[in-house]
Amino acid sequence: MNFSESISTCLNKCTNTNGRASLSEFWWFYLFCYLVNIVALLLFSLIGYTISGIDGLLVSLPICSIICGIVNFFLMLAVTIRRLHDTGHSGFWYFIIFVPLIGSIWLLILLLTSNNEENEYGLPEY
Question: Is 98 helix (H, G, I), strand (E, B) or coil?
């Protein structure tokens, strides 16, 4: 799956946690969200600085960060759950991230593994 297919698939399924997401779909969409955040932060900071100098910049950056964080959380949550389904795990494995020190590493390992066989969540997506 290439970059544009991944973005369109994930945006179409942004509220759907059923099914599976391939490894390439997940990482291309992650990259897309990261790039959109950078562009949004640059735009907000430029607008804030243009309107009222450094004070506008100091106000616009936190606002943009909060908005982007909330939007990205919900967009990435759906694709992460579908990615966990692809590895044969339930979406509740996402909560392993709350285990101190090891949780985020464990989640990353789960997201990097792949299962090319049919499981309870359906056929693999390519």
Answer: helix
Place of tokens 């464990």: 106
Dihedral of CA atoms 81, 87, 90, 93 in degrees, nearest 10, equals -70
1 token code pair: 């799956």
- Cα–Cα distance between 71 and 67 in angstroms, integer? 6
Rounded to an integer, the average pLDDT of 43-58 is: 85
Q: Which residue, among 112, 54, 42, has the nearest Cα to 83 in the 3D structure?
A: 112
Residue 37 pLDDT: 92
CA separation for the pair 122, 119 (Å, rounded)? 6
| CA–CA gap between residue 8 and residue 57 (Å, rounded) | 32
